[in-house]
Amino acid sequence: MKTLSQPLPACLVLAAAALPALGAPPPQADATLWQRECDFADTMARRDLDAFGRFVAEQAVFHSGPAPLRGRAAVQAYWRRFYTEAQAPFSWYPDVAELLEPDRLAHTSGPVFGPDGALVARFHTVWRKEADGQWRVLLDHGGPASPGDRDRHPRPDPEACR
Fold first, then answer.
1. What is the rounded distance in angstroms from the CA atom of residue 13 to the CA atom of residue 128?
2. CA-to-CA distance for 47 and 55, rounded, in angstroms?
3. Per the record, which residues fall in region Disordered (predicted)?
4. Rg for the chain (alpha carbons), in Å?
């Protein structure tokens, strides 16, 4: 019997560990929050600005324009531009969903894709559980996709939110 004298390269072990089962959040992710982020992203796919607004906290801050957008009304007014055309200008889904302070604060993050399916950015969202029991976006910002994102997300995964 042949035995390996060298351990598997660390990159192979890490790559295998980083691959979640299709259609399910990774084991360390909060499933309720994962679904909430998926439902939030679905407002863009369905082209439903009013539904988008219901996910945003009254005190939300979004870093999506030339200056931070403060409050649900300002966020919704700015984001209207992304809901006017028949085709969504971008899409997203989570690959991270974690509770920071259970039943109070949480974080989601994941890839953002252009209409052609190309990876264009990464989003980071802080959620707050409100008095009515719903998670709403308190802080949202994006940034460039990392080289690791390009490896993990070469194209949108249609199963990510199923």
1. 34
2. 14
3. 138-162
4. 18
Q: Which helix (H) or strand (E) holds 70?
A: strand 69-70
CA-CA distance, 51 to 116, in Å (whole number)? 24
Closest to 26 (Cα-Cα) out of 132, 157, 134: 157
Domain coordinates of the chain in residue numbers? 24-152
Indicate the SS3 state at residue 17: helix
Average pLDDT, the chain: 86
For the domain made up of 24-152, give the CATH fold: Nuclear Transport Factor 2; Chain: A, (3.10.450)
User: Tokens representing 91?
Assistant: 């899409």
Give the model's pLDDT for residue 102: 85
pTM: 0.82
